[in-house]
Amino acid sequence: MSCAEELPASEPVYAVRNLTYTYLGRFAALSGVSFDVRRGERVALLGANGSGKSTLLKILAGLIHPTSGHVAAFGKALTETALMEEQFNRDFRSRVGIVFQNPDTQVFSATVREEIAFGCLQLGLPPEEAQQRLDDVLRLLEITDLVERAPFQLSGGQKKKVALASVLVMNPEVILFDEPTAALDPRTQHWLIDLIGALGEAGKTIVVATHDLHTLADLTDRALVFAEDHTLLADAPTPAILADPAALLRANLIHDHRPY
Amino acid sequence: MTRGAAPPRSRADTPAWLVQPQAPLRPGSRVGRRRASFLERTLGDGAEVFRRAMYAEIDGSRGALQRLDPRAKLVALVALLVAVALVHSPLTLVVGYAAIVAVAWAGGVPMRSFVRRVWLVVPAFTAVAVAPATLSVVTPGQIVVPLWTWHGAPQGLTRQGLLAAALIVLRVACSVSLVLLVTLTTPWNRLLGALGALGVPRIFVTIIAMAYRYLFVLLGNITDLLMARKARTVRPPDHGAGDRRFVGAAVGTLLGKSHHLAEEVHQAMVARGYAGRHYALERSRFVAADVLVVLAALAAAVVILGVDRVLR
Predict the structure, then answer these.
(1) What whole-number percentage of chain A has pLDDT above 70?
(2) What local confidence, expressed as pLDDT, does residue A259 receive?
(3) Nearest C-alpha neighbor of B184 from the set B292, B310, B77, B32
(4) Chain B interface, mutation test: which of A101, A108, A154, most B Cβ atoms within 10 Å?
(5) Which of A5, A33, A159, A236 could bond A103 through an S-S bridge, CB–CB 3.0 to 4.6 Å?
(6) Which H/E stretch holds residue A22?
(7) Sequence-ordered list of residues with C-beta below 8 angstroms from that of B252, at least 6 positions apart, any chain
(8) Residue closest to B209 by CA, chosen among A115, A143, A161, A121
(9) Handedness of CA A52, A53, A57, A58 (dihedral sign)
(10) Distance from B159 to chain A by nearest Cα, in Å?
(11) A102 forms bridges with which residues in the sheet?
């Protein structure tokens, strides 16, 4: 099945089964992880530093592939071979966007305009449509005045907005965020939380890798908690996870003398 | 599973040295004045020079030169650079340099910065290199400034040597001025776009753009490394082995960081559909003024070479 076809409502966007990933064949990043993500869900990948959240996001984005186990996206196996099929690669890339933790990674073009247009042009949109989307997304993220700037002329928060714009402009169904609120000032944090909330309400599937317990309830409805041994420790609604200090303690996200 | 050690829960768990107060500040004169190490100054100043040069804003709407199509400017630049390289009379070059300065002035280029950038670079890199050619031991000829004698024969600066050196210095000055005139009146991204439009392979242009882009990130890393070292340098700076060790460690760190960065940048590109091809959002249009500029530059190149032939 091509992912361009409409997915049945019951079909998960992602089905992950017994997923294991090791770096250099020695260092485990994920161990025996299984879960589903359904359309329109807002899911947190919650874990301490080094628990494998960012690795999992990259696997869900089809950028790296599991050492063992199975990942299906939109009902089709998400493998290196599958992504070499022109049609599936195009369908998948237009449906899944990832916002990296470090915006310097993502903002690689000479100007903000080129950066935001990059994805649209890669998808083969006509320049007029790409330009229209560019204008719309600049307005949406309130960065119209930055359009001719070079990335080195942007602050950290502005770079984050440009990185987000460069993903949103492709209108993905699924948006993966790696530590979206990290290193942002409180005002920009709140702005981003509101935006992610609006995207969720618009029906986008949101997956957020984070260890920030303070913004968790605002960003997500469900949380997958990863232990430091890279296994999945818990999978429950976000309020239930936040109300379970034992699970947070086991994941090393809180200390027993200073609970969340 | 490696679980982080529990943090100290009370002052009693904290090592004694960690709670010991520092000795009171002493007057500065008792320990002498410190000087930044050569390495620190070189790397720090180098990074600053790059940053200043690259952060220079270009006002795209200020003058006629800024509004010209970058492709026209590039074609004109190449024609004039070739002409300058073929000129053999210093006088032609002096006139040519005056003409370039006049065009820059008419185009609203900040004159002080324009002239200073050329004449700071030219003496430093060219004059030093051609200085030996002015001596009679390298370029024999009519001695105009005797400096010493060798077996009874006077030696020194020769007319031929000075003319040859002046020719090279003026050629470099004119060439650097022409390149500056284009780069100071054209935003970097439009210049890159023009290269692509003129047939330079898109991948080549992209590599230049990304190298330029990530130079800033790496400059930031160098500055951070220097500051982190400075912040923890308590003893007087070590100008020898310590500096060498730091350079070795910094090179290794930067190499590791740039490798990681390159991998993530590629992933970010792939995630947005990159499959080895690049596309441009907009194509600039050639208007009459651009055609005129190209024709004028070609005519100027012919005139320069014609005048040079007469003066030679």
Answers:
(1) 95
(2) 60
(3) B77
(4) A108
(5) A159
(6) strand A14-23
(7) none
(8) A115
(9) negative
(10) 49
(11) none
